[in-house]
Amino acid sequence: MAPSHLPVSVRLFSALAIKKALDETLLEAFTSTTGIGVDGVYEPTNVLLDQIEAGARPDVLVGVTGALEKLAAAGVLDASSLRPLTRVGIGVAVPRGAPAVDVSTADALVRALTSARSVAYSRTGASGVAFAALLERLGIAEEVNSRATVVQKGFTALALTDGRADLAVQQLSELRFVPDAHIVGPLPGEVQHYTDLSVALGADAAHRPEPAALLRHLTAAPAQDAYRAAGLEEPHP
After folding, report:
1. Do the beta carbons of residue 211 and residue 205 sit within 8 Å?
2. What is the pTM of this model?
3. Which of 15, 51, 80, 166 is 20 to 30 A from 64, alpha carbon to alpha carbon?
4. Percentages (nearest 5) of helix, strand, coil residues in the chain
């Protein structure tokens, strides 16, 4: 996050999925180039939506595409500024140094999840909602949830570092944020779920040059390198 003493700042609300790219590369480069600070709030999109419902108004919002489209239709966001940003799949991690588990097929994933002492996942983030639905489809929801470590928000892989769980499930970019977690793989293709993320200006900020400059920075071609390095992919056409 940029120093608060900078004379001009932009209020950014962002889904956790791109926090690593923002923290490690993009925001520092933006502030160094423009002199504009960024005050960032990082939460699952559903949590950000609750804050917006309560009256919060970010200058720039990054979140699940469908949610942003609804906010744009409601006039909370500037619809003309809405841009696709990136997409991310779900992965599985174990504590660093622990034996790897096989998650390469749906059957292998079921064996890994049902044999784990505890699986950590979040029910507020997009990946957690999708994973909870997947457990139901696979017919193992009751078995896994009976000993799951449910994280209300934040990075599920932190539950690996303190011993609460031995498997963590979350978006791949969020798993990468915890250095002591080892990603054993993405969910297999037949059960993978991708979350598309977009960015838009708040309706009240659309006339200001500073939020517009941040939006251009986040959607410029060089930003895709930072997203890829953080485990994200180019947005789906």
Report:
1. yes
2. 0.84
3. 166
4. 40, 25, 35
**CATH superfamily membership of 90-186:** Periplasmic binding protein-like II (3.40.190.10)
Contacts of 235 (CB under 8 A, 6+ apart): 84, 85, 86, 87, 196, 197, 198
Sheet containing strand 119-122, strands side by side: 149-151, 119-122, 167-171, 90-95, 181-186
The ranges assigned to domains in the chain are: 9-87+195-229, 90-186
State which CATH number among 3.30.700.30, 3.30.1300.10, 3.40.50.670, 3.40.190.10 fits the domain covering 9-87+195-229. Answer: 3.40.190.10
List per-residue pLDDT tens for the chain, 237 residues long.
444 455 689 999 999 889 999 999 999 999 999 999 999 999 989 899 999 999 999 999 999 999 999 999 999 999 999 999 999 999 999 999 999 899 999 999 999 999 999 999 998 888 899 999 999 999 999 999 999 999 988 899 999 999 999 999 999 999 998 999 999 999 999 999 999 999 999 999 999 999 999 999 999 999 999 999 988 998 876
